[in-house]
Write a structure and sequence with these properties.
This protein has about 260 residues and is an alpha+beta fold. The protein has a single domain, classed as Endonuclease/exonuclease/phosphatase (Deoxyribonuclease I, Chain A, 4-Layer Sandwich). It has helices at about 10-25, 45-50, 85, 115-135, 160-165, 170-180, 190, 225; strands at about 1-5, 30-35, 55-60, 65-70, 75-80, 90-95, 100-105, 140-145, 185, 200, 215, 220, 230-235, 255. The strands form three sheets. The chain has a six-stranded mixed beta sheet. The relative contact order is 0.16.
């Protein structure tokens, strides 16, 4: 089973590229999408169903939005946390697929200060408590995937001194993310590739991708039981290298499990 997470920065703008990737480049069973930027009714279900995927969507017009595509169908689906405050922005969808619990997350980008920064920190507090209440990390096969909008360490950004204190690399954000991981989640990419930078996002400006001026802000986090079933994890740069159709500013992260 291969599971991927991909911030597509608008599903309608990226649909043709994603379908080309799925049909020509990769054999993928589960794809978790973030920032789809459309309401449920406007998601291109038929296009993905035509290539073998069932889709569940928790969308929002012009902003945010998450979706899961599965070749195995779905045993259970939950759209949102069930909390008014944190479901106002469509940032979370979960599914159970072949005994694996998949939590697809699009964390807030936040800001340097003020309400959006506080909301980002609160979001991780809430997500931490939600997982602790609903899952047993010592027993459940759990994958928490998505765009977390935080780079953990110096190795996760192209210039740690220049970017220190910027959004996604602020001390309190990073501390909050480390506290979140301490509930028992394993950063699969960093565990498998301890010395690779592994960037998943590059600004569109100034040829940042081609200069490798990126950040690692997309993750596949696993429970210990699922970690034991992991075979590989890599960043697939194929979609990001395309000039046409215009790519997302993110690249997909792909993991293989038993």
């Amino acid at each position: 089973m291969k599971i991927a997470t991909f911030n597509v920065n608008s599903i309608r703008a990226r649909k043709d590229l994603i379908i080309k990737w799925l049909t020509e480049k990769i054999d993928l069973e589960i794809l978790c999408l973030q920032e789809i930027k459309c309401e449920d009714k406007d998601f291109p279900y038929k296009d993905f169903e035509a290539i073998g995927y069932e889709c569940v969507v928790f969308g929002q017009k012009a902003y945010n939005g998450v979706a899961i595509l599965s070749k195995f169908g779905f045993d259970k689906v939950k759209k949102g946390f069930g909390d008014e405050k944190f479901d106002k922005e469509k940032r979370f969808i979960q599914a159970k697929i072949k005994d694996k619990n998949i939590l697809n997350v699009y964390a807030p980008r936040g800001s340097l200060e003020g309400e959006r920064h506080i909301f980002k920190l609160e979001f991780f507090n809430f997500l931490k408590e939600y997982i602790q209440k609903n899952f047993d990390l010592e027993k459940d096969d759990l994958a928490v995937v998505g765009d977390m909008n935080i780079a953990r360490e110096n190795i996760d950004v192209w210039d740690s001194e220049l970017l220190r204190g910027s959004i996604g690399f602020m001390d309190d954000e990073r501390e909050k993310f480390e506290d979140f991981l301490k509930i028992g989640l394993i950063d699969l990419y960093r565990s498998v590739h301890p010395k690779k930078s592994g960037f998943t996002w590059w600004d569109y400006k100034n040829g940042a991708f081609w200069k490798n001026m990126g950040m690692r802000i997309d993750y596949i986090l696993t429970s210990p039981t699922l970690f034991k079933k992991a075979k590989s994890i890599d960043i697939d740069l194929w979609t990001r290298k395309r000039r046409k159709p215009i790519p997302s500013d993110h690249a997909p992260l792909v993991a293989k499990f038993l």
